[in-house]
Sequence to fold (511 residues):
Amino acid sequence: MTKDLVGIKEMSKEDIEHVLLTATSFKDVLKRDIKKVPALRGKTVVNLFFEPSTRTKTSFELAEKRLSTDVLNFSVPMSSVVKGETLYDTVKTIEAYGVDFIVIRHASSGVPHFIARNVSTSVINAGDGINEHPTQALLDAFSIMEKRGTLDGLKIAIVGDILHSRVAKSNIYLLSKFNTSIRLIGPPTLIPEVGDYGVEVFFDMDKGLKDIDVVMMLRIQTERQSRGFFPSSREYSKYWGMDMKRLNLTGNNTIVMHPGPMNRGIEIASDVADSSRSVVLDQVTNGIAVRMAVMYLLAGNGKK
Amino acid sequence: MRLKGVVCVLYYEIYAGLLLDTGGGFFMSVMMKELVNKKDIERILSRIAHEIIEKNKGTEGLCLVGIQRGGAHLAGRLALKIRDIEHEEIVVGSLDISLYRDDLGIRKHHPVVRKTSIPCDISEKKIILVDDVLYTGRSIRAAMDALMDYGRPAQIQLAVLIDRGHRELPIRPDFVGKNIPTSRSENIEVQLEEDGFEDKILIQSAE
Fold:
């Protein structure tokens, strides 16, 4: 692996497989009574979140603590950023503290790439604008493999606001490196032009779900809906929401995923979210194991 | 090859014919010698199995834990031998020590974390830690730390196939297959059937 994890796009298939394999060992660690290993003892991580986040930040922080790193949370509203410091100066200052990892979330696409170019510290992208959320795609792939044993040959649908979703993009980059067929389902206003990733686009959800193995529901990002991409939540729910009736159109073993936080009753109905076909809570657990694997492998790559 | 009645299967030379470019433009030949063959390994393991039973007065409370990968294979074989001798099933597990090592980021290779499976509660058990080659002792230190995170064993004993010296920590084995004095520039390679080889132990020295 390289120094940083800025995106799935930049990762090779071999590196992805290596992360997923390593994550299985970390999942075993999480099942023990003592859930902590000394693998990264003495390393320091700064969590630099320029966007509100509870679950990703919590997941990273738990992963960091279970690897025995020292964790610093850089909270933006209190920091020099509000005093007018540039991003460049902020990260150069953090580098000068002598930290080993910067975990960064930012509302602008490309910020992790910019930081990675400018510091010798390892940079991990925890979500940048509408570009990528690589650890989410890795944990999704891990969760699918846990249920299905493989990614190869699977038909996977990604449903909802593809346009604004970094989760969807990272998943498309990842799944297209494997032998999968990818379908994008959603309102025409929320499906962007997708390049050479071999995806099929469906505006009719019932048609798109036929014979599907895995359904990845996306969160309707109400904070990004000011421009009126669809008339109302109710209408969205009727056409692109996942409920039991729709789930029954798919195969019996179809699993339903959601990166959280869920808008129950809009993109996913409660009966689906709480059913045995939902792997939402497995995704949460697996997120910690996958993030541990990523940090462990980045540290082990011997950047000196 | 017999020499004054002494079985001399050792030093059966294999010139691997490897020519390695050391990077400085110089060529270095690497020589591999077979030190221990399949039969010897078989005999060594039988002896260690007996010694384990003797020292522990039976198999009560015993659990074999092999360090990935070579040690895990050897632990499996020792367990079968002990079962054949004592007619008692013996618990055997494997331990990956990658997450407990002290050289992450120093080693040249990407770390590969293998399976750890400890199939019993190790608290109050007598653990026989099994490894193929004992060298600096750092792997054993890591393995003991890893074990302690699974419980509080009554005892940890150490069985190794080869002790090649050069300890950097105060660690000593309880059961030794063979002492092989080496220099630090040499490399001991244990090849086992489980990994698709014929059982043998080779010493690799740069000349």
Notes: The CA atoms of residues 103 and 124 of chain A lie 5 Å apart. The mean pLDDT of chain A is 93. The first helix of chain A runs from residue 13 to 30.
